[in-house]
Amino acid sequence: MSPDNDRHPYQGFEQGPIRPPSEAHSLLVRVTRNCHWNRCTFCPVYKGARFSIRPVEHVLKDLDTIASHIEKLEFISAGPGILLEDDVIQLFKSLTREETVPFRAALQWYVSGMESVFLQDADSLVLRPDRIIPILAHLKKLFPRVKRITSYSRSDTIARIPDADLRLFREAGLNRIHIGMESGCDAVLEMMRKGATKDLHVRSGLKVKAAGMELSEYYMPGLGGRDLWREHAQDTADAMNRINPDFIRLRTLAIPDGTPLAEEVRAGRFRRCPDILTAEETLLFLDILEGVTGYLASDHALNLFPELEGRLPGDLVRMKDLAWRFLTMEPDARFLYQLGRRLGIMSRLADTDDPTLKSDVLSAAARFGATPENIDAITDAIVRGFI
């Protein structure tokens, strides 16, 4: 692939639309635009947007711009990462309109400690080493305090990269890869047009680890729907067992309007899992996990159980007990938690015992017209608003 705008002038600092929740404190560096695959039926992010590669010199200019703002912030700093609000306001007022976006990015990164960087957009590893390595080298030169540089990638992309090139990326500073496995079930992967198979996911995950990089794999509870939830949980857990990633990140399925999967739902070809079935699927997934020694993270607003996370295998029994407790709750208490969680009022199953939180949820239920009978439709509408 050649850069889209080798023949186009630099248009200024850019950042893409998304990043993993775990990269909330990272500097976002856009090296490609959008997604070169862009066929996954559940994903709304890049539909209708053309993929392109930014020229290396444009990315380097972005980094230089951030460095210039960091220099200004350090000049007014009252200590490492410490800024006085009045000083920041005065500095902001001195900027041109074009400078405000990179300044905000630099400010957020500066106060976060400047230790992590995320390369955007959906799959930076489609770039050849002669494009990625100069960017990594410039990052390390400008910001020597950086400890972690990460990127999304796809399993089919990783599979095509020579092992030697992956090691070059690692030696240049790229030390964590996020892969959206979503499922290890071939039937689910085909249905969702992921462009991958279970075997490909496993081979690519092992390849990332062999290169000395940390590996973060994503699992999407609910993606198999009512018809394939068992196979989805079983095959995904088996794939994770074979890879043993450093992180397993839960990202519960939501189906926003405008996606191909939403049309499948309307046509009756895909039947969504209600919360109780997604919890049963998650418990089955946990039951099959074996030999995984990484960290299971529930770090997204879409997830029903924020507290379902911990170090494997030590915290596995506690996490399974959590899912089981939800499944065996009294229906009224489960209803309260479902609605309270989706509204951000509750974050732990034990919150259903808090009288104040319970009262807040009951008031919200009256406003929404939510009942145990329609709770899944109500919470689905709320969740779609998160995306």
Describe the structure.
- Helix 9 links the parallel strand 7 (214-219) and strand 8.
- An eight-stranded mixed beta sheet has the order 1-4-5-6-7-8-9-10.
- It has helices at residues 56-76, 85-93, 97-112, 129-142, 155-160, 163-172, 186-191, 198-210, 225-243, 260-266, 275-288, 316-327, 331-342, 355-368, 375-384; strands at residues 27-30, 32-33, 52-53, 116-120, 148-153, 174-182, 214-219, 247-250, 295-297, 310-311.
- The longest helix has 21 residues, at 56-76.
- By secondary structure, the chain is α/β, with parallel strands linked by helices.
Strand order of the largest sheet: 1-4-5-6-7-8-9-10
- Percent helix range: 40-55%
Question: How far is the N terminus from the C terminus?
Answer: 30 Å
Gyration radius, in Å: 22 Å
Find the count of extended strands (DSSP E, 2+ residues). Answer: 10
Low-pLDDT ranges: none
Number of helices: 15
Shape summary: globular
Notable features of this structure?
47% helix, two-stranded antiparallel ribbon, 387 residues, alpha/beta, eight-stranded mixed sheet, 10 strands, 15 helices
Please describe the topology of this protein.
Blueprint: E1 27-30, E2 32-33, E3 52-53, H1 56-76, H2 85-93, H3 97-112, E4 116-120, H4 129-142, E5 148-153, H5 155-160, H6 163-172, E6 174-182, H7 186-191, H8 198-210, E7 214-219, H9 225-243, E8 247-250, H10 260-266, H11 275-288, E9 295-297, E10 310-311, H12 316-327, H13 331-342, H14 355-368, H15 375-384
Parallel strand pairs: 1-4, 4-5, 5-6, 6-7, 7-8, 8-9
Antiparallel strand pairs: 2-3, 9-10
